[in-house]
């Protein structure tokens, strides 16, 4: 098991995961609001994809399954999908909620219009 996951490597993993998500059509006249909505939709899509059993939370087993399915363990990164739990399970309940997932990707998408409910 890898244990050399630095914050820099972890940010690279999150950027790689985000890049794997489908991007909207390129539109030169896209408004900033539309761009933020598109970025938020990418995070939503990623959460739904990773949430294999669709129970609204990401657990270790789901992250492991996706990592194997996408062959992410073969990447050159020092971090694994399990590091999402290590770094972003803020209440230490063993899973990531959608709120924690939004928070995890806030740095990559700092201009996302987060929902009014406090995400």
TrEMBL record:
Subcellular location: Secreted
PROSITE patterns (UniProt xref): EF_HAND_1
Residues of the SPARC/Testican calcium-binding domain: 27-103
Keyword Cytoplasm: no
Alphabetized Pfam families for the sequence: SPARC_Ca_bdg (PF10591)
Superkingdom per UniProt: Eukaryota
Protein name, entry field: Follistatin-related protein 5-like
Species for this entry: Notothenia coriiceps
Lineage: Eukaryota, Metazoa, Chordata, Craniata, Vertebrata
